[in-house]
Amino acid sequence: KVILNEVKPMGVDGSIKLSGPNPVTGLPTQMTDAWVQNAVFRLENSGSDAAKETARIIIDAYARGKLIKTITGVNSSSVNLVKIP
């Protein structure tokens, strides 16, 4: 299994908000499959062998149904982990 984790600050009410699509940069909504594919593309084209290997690991995990997406909300006193279905 491979876990992709996005860390975000928690709101005062404990909420966690992911960034929506960005028409300027072309980035899809965070943690969607399209966002993961975009991240893999950027890793593959980074010029770094380690980044390319990370992309390969993510692609393989996704293909085998072993990619787990999570969000961790943090503030000065707590941490909240959410698994995305």
Write the layout of secondary structure elements.
Elements: E1 2-9, H1 33-44, H2 49-63, E2 67-74, E3 79-84
Parallel strand pairs: 1-2
Antiparallel strand pairs: 2-3
Helix pairs in contact: 1-2
Describe this structure in words.
By secondary structure, the protein is α+β, with helices and mostly antiparallel strands. 32% of the residues lie in helices and 26% in strands. A three-stranded mixed sheet has the order 1-2-3. Strand 2 and strand 3 form a beta hairpin. Helix 1 (33-44) runs antiparallel to helix 2. The mean pLDDT is 95.
Quick structural overview:
The chain has 85 residues and is α+β, with helices and mostly antiparallel strands. It is built from two helices and three strands.
Counted by DSSP, the helix tally is: 2
Distance between the termini: 15 Å
Radius of gyration: 14 Å
* Stretches with pLDDT under 50, minimum 5 residues: none
What are the main properties of this structure?
85 residues, alpha+beta, three-stranded mixed beta sheet, 3 strands
